[in-house]
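<amino_acid_chain>
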Amino acid sequence: MKNSYPWSKFYWSDWENDPALRVCSLAAQGLWMRLLCIAARSNPTGFIVVAGRPCSFTDIALLTGVSEQEVERLLDELSRNGVFSRDAQSRIFSRRMVRDTHARARLRKNGAKGGRSSYLNQKGIFASDEQMSEQGGEQEAEPKKEESRIQKNKTPESPPVLFADEGAVCQTLGKAKAHVAALSADWSLSEEWRDIATDRGWGTTAIDKQAMKFRQYFCFGRGADKKRSPRGWKQTWLNWLDRALKIDPDAATFGQSESPKMPASYPPLPDAVRQKLQGHFAFNEGFIQRWLLPCLIDLEAACVTAPSRFHAEYLESRYGAALEHALGRRLTFAVGNPHQQYIPAQKGEK
């Protein structure tokens, strides 16, 4: 099977807007473009291979014309930012190119099957004018088929027709659609939903507060006209909890007297950290005030301590690579109360 294609679609906006590529250096982006050219001619398509075996640092250095040390450094940068993937044989491959290749092969197979059948049978666009007129006349002259006994007796209100084999259980034809309805006015939080919130680290008082807001919004507020299936309402409740954490990272610990109180204001970031963050395109002052100021960023320990689990997971999943690129080191994200001992100065004090 021929897997090499002389050309393929390239979406410039996808390349420009890929956050994994944007946090890489220009040298790393240039190396990845050269590797994509190799992957497009490889067998299988999308893999950086030579004669079916994975390319080593030496092979890539010879193919791209740079030193092995430079190739190793740039590949480590691309791998750290998740630009490419490796399979079980440790072969580097482009996820996008592999998906496009599979889609292209599937569409070619389906198109060849349909086109060949229509051509051989002289149907569709391959039919002659005489055949088209004959087919039209046959369709007009064909009498209407008499309705079957089952269709005659079936009314819109009658249930689906059931069929049974010997010793088999009757089954309905087709799958019943899930029933959707609005949230009832007397809705209360079920134990199952409460257990799910508890497993996610929510306290009892915080769950009751969110359940009251949830009922007020979907029973009497703007969401009163929303209709969901039972499974859909369950997912809506989970989304509601996630949204509450995005608005207030301490929402899950609301009402817990034993939970440490966060200060009304936070100490400023170290000058070295702020200068590196302000010089990076991914961070503005609003983001620093909202997400980074409540954290303790220790450059020596390469650790970012966030005030909540959601806060730490959000920074690591969304901005982990950008923070590592801006601060110049691999970071670990922890959960704690980084500013528990901080007491802001009162007015008039020095």
In short: The chain has three domains: 1-128, 191-253, 271-335. The beta strands are 49-50, 53-54, 85-86, 92-93, 162-163, 171-172, 296-298, 303-306, 332-335.
